[in-house]
Amino acid sequence: MKKVLFVFALALTSILTSCEESLDLGQQNQNETTDAASAAKVSAVIKQDYPTATQLLVTTIDSNKVYGCDFLVNGVAHEATVSVTGKILSTYEIKADTTKAALIDAIKLYLETNYKGYKLEKVAVGKDANAKVSYKVLIVYNDQKITLMFDATGTLLATFIEPKGQKPDPKQSPKTYPVVLSELPANIQSQLSGFEFVRAFVKTDSDGKKTYFVVAKTGDVLYEITFDNAGVLKNKNAIKLQVPKPEVKYLKDNDLPQVIKDYLSANYLGWKFEKGVVLVKDTTIDSYTIVIAKEGKIITLTFDGKGKFISVLEPKLPTIPKIEDKSIVANDLPQTIKDYLNKVYVGWTFVKGNVSLKNEVAQAYLVVITFGTDKYYVYFDKDGSFVAAKKDK
Predict the structure, then answer these.
(1) Could you tell me which of 59, 125, 342, 345 has the fewest CB atoms within 10 Å of its CB?
(2) Are residue 184 and residue 160 in the same domain, yes or no?
(3) Helix (H) and strand (E) counts for the chain?
(4) What is the pLDDT of residues 284-302, one digit of tens each?
(5) Domain boundaries, position 333
(6) C-beta atoms surrounding 176 within 10 Å
């Protein structure tokens, strides 16, 4: 999967490096001059969605196809890509806050796990033409600038690592933009027959020649396919898709998010934290489970990845059945018992009776009778069926 992300990084070079360039807003890609009419059209499209946009700077990404636009909205930097038909392909808002407040927990966890001690340089939060949210994050790690792209859940999409000590020249940086299957050349589309299209990017060089990066799959096999300007297949790599294994991490009480601590203080004040775990799926926190105790009572609480309460489990102690013996009179006897006595002990006389109860449900009967001059102890089960009889001596 790392290989997949690396190839994505190559395919996304322009988008990711432009993240750094546009984040800086001082290094615009001036590879190609944009004519005034096109610049005005792109500016008008941006103005429709961002009426208060100012300082619009339009550049050409691919002649007569895709343009880039950097602009300000109430002093906040934005960047966008726009098609020649006037469709906004993507927009990003550049966050000025580098205190990590703009990052969701899943991204923070990924960065802290894989780049411990990193310095956050810039964050851009945006969406594509289908309103899918993504994040571009620029960090410095071991004196090296790294740009990472994440989706809305915090899943890593691509990584671009600048060579140490080498600052990219914006005039030489490649230009890349996303395309759908129908926008690929016909000869490339035909070569993708039998594949499930995932995504594609086009990279143009300074001479206008293009390289097509396509990601497609069949079954559970993901393919990275590269075509040249003429649509000739240059490279195809197949990698088995791997389902990320959920990771369980044990927690101490101090590791709990503040929102969970606040919930415990409000609802379980005085309870003692016993143990806890956090479930992480593909670098994203899925849930928290903790066990707390008080006065011999133990309960389990579950929270979602953001610390919102989900459920509580209170183990039930085994119930001790209520067993008792109760005296009864002749009228309390079930009819089956009366029928038996009338048949076997014709003319019997009731002396006393007793029923054994379990949680108030009859389990057995004892009936003391006289028959002639003799006394008998007659036993029946819970259904009134005869069990045994004993003659009193």
Answers:
(1) 342
(2) no
(3) 7, 23
(4) 888 999 999 998 889 999 9
(5) 323-391
(6) 25
**DSSP per residue, 303-357:** EETTS-EEEEE-PPPPPPP-EEEEEE-GGGS-HHHHHHHHHHSTT-EEEEEEEEE
pLDDT tens track for 110-122: 888 888 889 998 8
- Count Cβ atoms within 10 A of the Cβ of residue 86 and give its class: 0-12 exposed, 13-18 middle, 19 or more buried: exposed
Q: The domain spanning residue 352 has which CATH number?
A: 3.10.450.360
For residue 107, being part of any structural domain is answered with yes
Residue 1 domain-assigned?
A: no
The last residue of a domain, from among 313, 332, 348: 313
* pLDDT band, very low/low/confident/very high, at 355 (cuts 50, 70, 90): very high
283 and 377 co-located in one domain: no
H helix intervals, 134-241: 186-191
Query: Which of 255, 283, 313 finishes a domain?
Result: 313
Cβ count near 253 (within 10 Å): 15
The torsion defined by the Cα of 64, 148, 6 and 112, in degrees rounded to 10, comes to 180
Beta-carbon contacts of 246 under 8 Å, excluding residues fewer than 6 positions away, are: 279, 280, 281, 286
Decide if 30 contacts 59 (C-beta within 8 A): yes
- Asked if the structure places residue 174 within a domain, the reply is no
